[in-house]
Amino acid sequence: MAAAAAAAVGGPQPPQAEVPAPGLALDKAATAAHLKAALSRPDNRAGAEELQALLERVLSAERPLAAAADGEEAAAAGGGGGPGAAEEEALEWCKCLLAGGGGYDEFCAAVRAYDPAALCGLVWTANFVAYRCRTCGISPCMSLCAECFHQGDHTGHDFNMFRSQAGGACDCGDSNVMRESGFCKRHQIKSSSNIPCVPKDLLMMSEFVLPRFIFCLIQYLREGYNEPADVPSEKDLNKVLQLLEPQISFLEDLTKMGGAMRSVLTQVLTNQQNYKDLTSGLGENACARKSHEKYLIALKSSGLTYPEDKLVYGIQEPSAGASTLAVQGFASAAGTLGQLDSSDEEDQDGSQGLGKRKRVKLSSNTKDQSIMDVLKHKSFLEELLFWTIKYEFPQKMVTFLLNMLPDQEYKVAFTKTFVQHYAFIMKTLKKSHESDTMSNRIVHISVQLFSNEELARQVTEECQLLDIMVTVLLYMMESCLIKSELQDEENSLHVVVNCGEALLKNNTYWPLVSDFINILSHQSVAKRFLEDHGLLVTWMNFVSFFQGMNLNKRELNEHVEFESQTYYAAFAAELEACAQPMWGLLSHCKVRETQEYTRNVVRYCLEALQDWFDAINFVDEPAPNQVTFHLPLHRYYAMFLSKAVKCQELDLDSVLPDQEMLMKLMIHPLQIQASLAEIHSNMWVRNGLQIKGQAMTYVQSHFCNSMIDPDIYLLQVCASRLDPDYFISSVFERFKVVDLLTMASQHQNTVLDAEHERSMLEGALTFLVILLSLRLHLGMSDDEILRAEMVAQLCMNDRTHSSLMHHIPENPNPKSGIIPGSYSFESVLSAVADFKAPVFEPGGSMQQGMYTPKAEVWDHEFDPVMVILRTVYRRDVQSAMDRYTAFLKQSGKFPGNPWPPYKKRTPLHPSYKGLMRLLHCKTLHIVLFTLLYKILMDHQNLSEHVLCMVLYLIELGLENSAEEESDEEASACGPERCHDSWFPGSNLVSNMRHFINYVRVRVPETAPEVKRDSLASTSSDSLGSLQNSGTAQVFSLVAERRKKFQEIINRSNSEANQVVRPKTSSKWSAPGSAPQLTTAILEIKESILSLLIKLHHKLSGKQNSYYPPWLDDIEILIQPEIPKYSHGDGITAVERILLKAALQSRMNKRIIEEICRKVTPPVPPKKITAAEKKTLDKEERRQKARERQQKLLAEFASRQKSFMETAMDVDSPESDIPMEITTAEPQVSEAVYDCVICGQSGPSSEDRPTGLVVLLQASSVLGQCRDNIEPKKLPISEEEQIYPWDTCAAVHDVRLSLLQRYFKDSSCLLAVSIGWEGGVYVQTCGHTLHIDCHKSYMESLRNDQVLQGFSVDKGEFTCPLCRQFANSVLPCYPGSNVENHLWQRPSNKSIQDLIKEVEELQGRPGAFPVSISSETNLSKEMESVMKDIKNTTQKKYRDYSKTPGSPDNDFLFMYSVARTNLELELIHRGGNLCSGGASTAGKRSCLNQLFHVLALHMRLYSIDSEYNPWRKLTQLLEEMSSQLGNEEQQPEVPILYHDVTSLLLIQILMMPQPLHKDHFTCIVKVLFTLLYTQGLVALSVKCNEEDRSAWKHTGALKKNTCDAEKSYEVLLSFVISELSKGKLYHEEGTQECATIIPVAWSPESMEKYLQDFCLPFLRITSLLQHHLFGEDLPSCQEEEEFSVLSSCLGLLPTFYQTEHPFISASCLDWPVPAFDIISQWCFEINSFTERHAEQGKALLIQESKWKLPHLLQLPENYNTIFQYYHRKTCSVCTKVPKDPAVCLVCGTFVCLKGLCCKQQSYCECVLHSQNCGAGTGIFLLINASVIIIIRGHRFCLWGSVYLDAHGEEDRDLRRGKPLYICKERYKVLEQQWISHTFDHINKRWGPHYNGL
């Protein structure tokens, strides 16, 4: 243990008592037993004293040991046992004493037996995997450990798995937090009844020992904490904690013994008397005194007082940490933290002073200072918690304290203690450097305590929990306040939080806020809060700190130099600290009985708002160019209003303030709406990107219902209660488009640039439409809202289930019941959307399951208004419209370009009826009239969007008109109104038909309207009061608004108005610099109806296009079928409006008919000034250019698409002609190539060779073939393991090493192929380029500094044409591409002649058209590509020879490359050639070129003619015996052990190229005889003795028939008799019989065996022939594959009859007498088996039937993989990896990125990818469910093959829903692996630097 800093002096016991006296030490058990006996007596005082003395000695904290502060002395002072010895000794003593002389383990078991555990209570720390079931949870924080979850029954529940962020505890068994139905089997039984009572003596010793032990621990904690002048460094604290580790672990183990021990611990921890006796520090024990001093100092330094502070020492000595401010008299100051901590606060301020303003200090006005700084400890528990906080919540301590929670008594005591320390926790948290970790630990504790409603209520009542929390939060925020600059910078008295402070930036406040939200979710607690007026006032005070924070000022000149990112902090703070608690409170105001609460909140909210308006000096105009998105007070007010009307049936007017307050309330929310439009119009562009970020966050799904929705609702409330004219004019003024609303064609806008006018006008109208049509808080039910939200999201884009959940604003309070995923969510989803299952195109992107709107949703529910409100990006609105258009076209509903549809709204709640008055006010009608006129006259800056909105508003007005009012009524409001206004009344229906004749406008003198007439009035009335000249009216919105404002404010007679008005309007007169305005009178003579009809003509482009429909069909008026929802464009909209107008009044109907009767004269051509014409032309030209560009782009895209389709289709066999390499006509001898870089075509020549773009990659796919059909399963338990013995690679490896053991090395290397693992696969995209062009291309790539996904230094590049990944160029051999037909003419030479020719040709060294001696460019390139091929794979996959670097090695490697490529192509064709046709790779095959390169290099190594296997195949050698004479030299490999396919490749590559077809066929025929013989030999070995003798006999009889050489029976019998001469068949011991399966061989099965044995060779040979001679492969059925291929290869004589069953032997064509050559071959075998019969036999049985390679089979459910692997330990480092991964090829378990398993700077995954896949690795990341591909030095995330029930991935298991295998995806992955197309299909590659 950490001990005192210095040895204490004096004291009752001898200071040198290092260890108890030896006698005691020897026999702890005896002592313990003796003491236990003494204590069991009735009078146990003596025993107790003895025990105390012993404990004093053992647990004394005054051993001169390592003190935390000066660790160096530790070793010296520690005495013999080293520092840890004494502690261990003490622990041993404790264990012995607890057990009372028995064994400690038995004691533990005994105690456990009395555990009445009804609760699980398992405590976990961060990153633990736990479960949460929403179906079973009562509290949203409920969580279960994996074990309890899997033991319970949660089928069909809404649960998910999650990684714990902060740690937690299992709630199984706690019915306060979860429903009992969800308990697991262990915790279902209420077991307290049947647990026997704990015997008294079992825990008696514990009751004596533990208090001392815990006190000892506390003393160490005191000692270890040195309070230096600055905050103690973490290092010191951690040192102390490390030393204490064993002690705390011991306590933790005690808690795990179960309920009996926990209750003892609870007694000890909460017993006040014990604490007092032991810790008062008053005894003569110096050590205890010193310890108590340290404790008091620690209290002091925390700014806390100890209530009765009689002990004064420790304060005067400066060394003892008296530098704390408390001592210097600060404690008596107002005591806010701002001042207490000012020493470190100010320094921080200095250092980060950038852009920070001075903090504001508030004098404290909270009720109770003692909450903040008085702390008194009365028990061990309290002081333990104090130190836990002081040491910043060490994980071990937290776990111990939480482990005790299942004890109910402890739980209550601990919760009270926690609350008592709440303020202190906050102070420590603020100072902490590790605030994140600490926050997590705090929440880890508090969530366990406060989620329990009963407990929360108790603490609220007994410990003033609410007061404490609110006060602590207030204090916390007070430390970072600054003066607000909103509105009135100089005189503002308002303070706001500074979002730049660490406290907000790092979310340090979240633990406290989350606790607050947690307790408000309990109804009983929330009610107390809502009833307590004092608390509400304090809380509103707290909220007002956030009102107006993070103010933005529009930059008008320079771009801001430093973009602050504080807005994140501001939005997070408002959401977490203000909105979340608000939703919590709202959830308890659901019923009528709770009206009182709402009234309270609204009342204090209004008071706080009033104070705020006063503090910022607000009168009636907002300051220009300023906006804050944070108005939490407004939003509280709005949300409680909404709740009051919706749920509590409160009368809205009873909670609304007066008109003046409403006018103030609407200003700031309206300012935000206008600013949004400004930001989208790029008016704030100089403020940087962050302002756009704010505008987006404001409407984003997590924030919208706490921000924009309440704002709009508040504006709707204000609009419904204020004068409509005032409101409308305010809107246009805020949006700065007042000056635009003039009839004149030109105007001056004093506050807005012309380029922004159009989008601001659109913004203003859109805002009005939203304001008038949104019903979210005005009458929609929760389900309707959910449906509308869902439809809006789905209309923008098809969405996955999780993105829908993410985008739909959930009701932020978790207890509201409408959470995504709840029943209503799923049912609404299935009602509005169809599920599109994921589809897969090969080479296409991985798609996920998507939801797409049903047709009827587009038809009836698509709501553009909702879409506009919810879009974060403007492009989403366009996307929704495009999808809508596509739907209408497709369903044939509307062919053209539709306008956003008009949708009937949910009826308004009666309280908000006033909102519709906006549609019936003159101001709006004048605006609509003006805009219609301007659009008709083609004024600039108007768009279709504007017209759309105007018509929308008119239609809304008609929908919501009051009953037709009489004209008298309208004019009743006063004579003065009547003459001077434009319209007679305020009803839209009647105003529509009102004709307006003349309008007086103010225009610049340059305008075309200016008539030189005397009517122009003086310009004194610059935006003059309304002129009443009888003929014309001028209209000024601003003046109108001022007038209304004055009316509302003064409520007095009209004279007062007259006096005030000019003054206010003068402020708004145009600045002097503007050109002079004059007045002109325009003749208009239109009404809204006539304008609409003309618009119809204009839109349709025809004169008189409108004809009233009711003239033909009067029914329309009687029974109008106006649908609730209408599609169409502007024309249909106009028709709809006219019909509705006619329906609503007969007058309108008549007027419409009249207007239509007057055949409208064409609109007079406007006088267009030259300047205007220019701009119009410009616009038109731009439009045309744009269209042209679109067309070009579309064409380009389609070209690219068709190209990609041909280039990228990976799976479909193509029979098309290769792209460039066209088949040559007979007379053309040279192939022509196109270079994709320089574009020239021409042949490949020696000086300027052309090459194919190729990708070389090492591959081990072939090696993964196995011989059984069933693919291996991924192991998911310890029993299942995968062993690689049966893979193709392993078998070939064994064979080669076996041969090398007994035969001559050089000959072994010719007898087999390598490359099953790490073979080089060559693929091309089919494009060619000149090699010199390629070099310059590479140079340019090297100089190009753009980050590429590939490494140019390694020779990597992308094909310049198709961008396919490549890393080399394969030179094309000059000459024709497909060998000349002369070569292919069959000559009639006999086979003997051909054999001789072949031998001669092979003998000619380097007989090549190109002589190698002359270094040409071509030969250089061939050499360099050969080097590339060698470097592609690792050395271990190239060198198999015993003598390193021998030429045989290269020879073996080269022909194996050819083998690898042929075998892989065979696998790509599905393992056989039945499908026939051209090569799968069609144009992308490069085998021909590859063969040339290999052949050129093979010819450099001529084989000694005597070793050439060709001789052995075609000649009888005379002196057989001579070979054996030479004993000491190893023999050559017998020809029957040779791999025939390898021989084929050696023979062909040794021939001069181009090859003659005859020679090819000759070689194949000769090799077939050998192959057939091998088949017979293998067959003979496989069968048993009786079969053999029978066959030997039957064959011998037929030996002399005419074609005995072509009868397998004869041949087989001959083979058996020859081999019987040796020992091959002899040593058939008992063990041998087991391996050979007894098969009844019939002639059919033997024939089948022989055919299967020969097929692999025939397939490879046919492929080779196809590539060398360009012949197509025939397609066939599987059963006839043998015969078809053999005839295609020319093995079958042409006259062969196919009637009788086909016999493979008929293909034989022996070059020399069969029996002679066979006996020669068998002789070699016999001579070998003389010595090694076993091996001889093993080598003869070759496995020829390999199945296709597969990845491991995965289990259906991902959880099975996850549960097994995520806790599995790594076999290398035996730790549980942080990122476990498993290889899907071989099932190896590896640590991703684990430094533990790093070898020579390679991490384990990279290493494994090289060993297992020669550089290609496919790993499943267990914790993320995704697959990662490693290819060489790059890697990419491939995606996941596990999808959830909605068909989507869950990367990183964030959602934790159950995942199921998606077989199609897994197939795609396997396909890409087998076809080596990872590089081409996956686009996102990055370098891994060996770190994976």
Reconstruct the topology from this structure.
Layout: H1 22-26, H2 28-40, H3 45-58, H4 73-77, H5 82-99, H6 104-112, E1 123-124, E2 129-133, E3 144-145, H7 146-151, E4 159-163, E5 168-169, H8 204-224, H9 234-255, H10 259-270, H11 272-279, H12 286-301, H13 337-340, H14 342-351, H15 370-373, H16 380-390, H17 395-403, H18 408-420, H19 422-431, H20 435-450, H21 453-463, H22 465-478, E6 481-483, E7 495-497, H23 502-505, H24 510-520, H25 523-531, H26 533-544, E8 552-553, H27 566-586, H28 595-615, E9 626-627, H29 632-647, H30 659-680, H31 689-699, H32 708-721, H33 724-734, H34 754-773, H35 782-796, H36 801-807, H37 823-832, E10 833-836, E11 850-853, H38 855-860, H39 864-870, H40 874-891, E12 902-903, H41 922-936, H42 944-959, H43 967-971, H44 975-980, H45 988-991, E13 996-1004, E14 1032-1033, H46 1037-1050, H47 1054-1066, E15 1077-1086, H48 1088-1100, H49 1115-1118, E16 1125-1126, H50 1130-1144, H51 1146-1157, H52 1170-1208, E17 1233-1234, E18 1241-1242, E19 1250-1259, H53 1288-1302, H54 1305-1311, E20 1319-1330, H55 1331-1343, E21 1357-1358, E22 1365-1366, E23 1368-1371, H56 1381-1384, H57 1391-1403, ...
Parallel strand pairs: 13-14
Antiparallel strand pairs: 1-5, 2-3, 2-4, 6-7, 8-9, 10-11, 12-16, 13-15, 17-18, 19-20, 19-23, 21-22, 24-25, 24-26, 26-27, 27-28, 28-31, 29-30
Helix pairs in contact: 2-3, 2-5, 3-8, 5-6, 5-8, 5-9, 8-9, 8-10, 8-16, 9-17, 17-20, 19-20, 19-22, 20-24, 22-24, 22-26, 24-27, 26-28, 27-29, 28-29, 29-32, 30-32, 30-34, 33-46, 34-39, 34-42, 35-37, 35-39, 41-42, 41-48, 42-50, 46-47, 48-50, 50-51, 57-64, 58-60, 59-60, 59-63, 59-68, 60-63, ...
